[in-house]
Amino acid sequence: MVLTPPNQQHQQAIKNLYFYKDPKDTEEDIDALIDWLSKQPHLPNITDRVWLRHFLIGRKNNLQRTKKVLESYFTIRVEIPELFDDMTSDAAWIQKAVKVGKMSVLPKLTPEANRVHIIRSIENNDGEFDAMAMCKGSLKTIDYLMRREPVYGLVFLLDLKHCQLSYLLSFTPTLTKNLMRCIDEATPLRVRGVHYVNPPKFVSRLVNFFKLFMPSKIQNRIVIHETYDTLYEHIPRDMLPDEYGGTAGSIEKFENDIMEATKEDDEWYRNMPKADLSKRPIQPKKLDMDMTGTFKKLDID
Asked: Where does the CRAL-TRIO domain lie (predicted)?
């Protein structure tokens, strides 16, 4: 899969972000991260400077916040193993999941330098929807992106044309909470938008209900599109698949591309670095009222 790199317009948009830092100036921070990881008995000794740079950029070049997300990235794979086990491309759950839903990443960036991740339900007669598999598939796609480039922002495009009410109801509170925790605490992502297209009648009420439990910023970035015309206000037509009135080509090609591309990570998944919680130092208890832990909100700036 070919991800189109930022062009001059994208580079300017990135530089306009208030946390932008010249890549040359991040080398000392990367050295500090490598040194810090080497001294954590429960964390893997990671020395991949490119990958660490992506985390730094995602955490707005804040060294302490980057350490926190790296800690969570490795520990959460032990604490919630069901979302990260058996992640190679030949896994049985993937073969079952693609009978009901498909995923892709658009090659082009939005003018704001955001990636677009499409998740869609497909018409099927013999497939069985598995909410856990859909969550794992999205996390696998996000991992693919993070290993290859800084993700300045991620836009989710959810196509519900063939979505059944039972699909959405199968996302249990525990699964939903765990998925949100994985994205919130254990990735350096910033969610720039969530767009629903081809919504069934029941979707509006469900989305409006869930909005009540979300931060105001993300509430304002959730949009239900009754037609594609309003979608073009957020995602240019020239980067959208033909199926959405765009001119970028068939969505099936993008879906096949990401399926093929993620095979590159099979060996990495077979030896996936994770924490050894038996070696984690015991943290002293303290009264902390800054709300940066369990109740930390999504980073969607």
From this structure: 66-252
